[in-house]
Amino acid sequence: MQKVMFKGLLPEDKTLREIKVTNGAKIMVVGSTINDVLAVNTPKEAAQQEVKAEENKKEPLCRQKQHRKVLDKGKPDDVMPSVKGVQERLPTVPLSGMYNKSGGKVRLTFKLEQDQLWIGTKERTEKLPMGSIKNVVSEPIEGHEDYHMMAFQLGPTEASYYWVYWVPTQYVDAIKDTVLGKWQYF
Hints:
Layout: E1 2-5, E2 28-31, H1 34-39, H2 43-57, H3 65-71, E3 95-100, E4 105-111, E5 116-120, E6 125-129, E7 135-141, E8 144-153, E9 161-168, H4 172-180
Antiparallel strand pairs: 1-2, 3-4, 3-9, 4-5, 5-6, 7-8, 8-9
């Protein structure tokens, strides 16, 4: 729970001798107590708690007008099959056959080796660093509970949500874990 700085932040696996700190050199040590670390409410946790509180006050997302226009198109013919009551790891192939808020086709590709989420449409592919996604919100689609509608929060407010519809339910938890990091749920 300490960091050493000498001409910048030092890698944790190096000793002072290995980075050639000489006698009389100035170094800075920054640290926290375990109680300080545990008392911190991280921004992602706070954002997720805020969103959950808001969701409890509102009507279900799938009944809201902005979402109805996409959901009323019906389930896409080429959407990936869903398995209700099962949680699976992310598939090795992109999740495809879903709609975005415009009703256009969208696919999600998780590039774990690059720590990126690629959101692909017919027009372009957005390559987003996982760390830039502030939150992930999802809700089952009424009447089709084996599929979810899901939003990736790309900025500070709800206006920055990127909505994806018809996400197979078995991948919802794996997507959240991958994007937000498993530490989020401890």
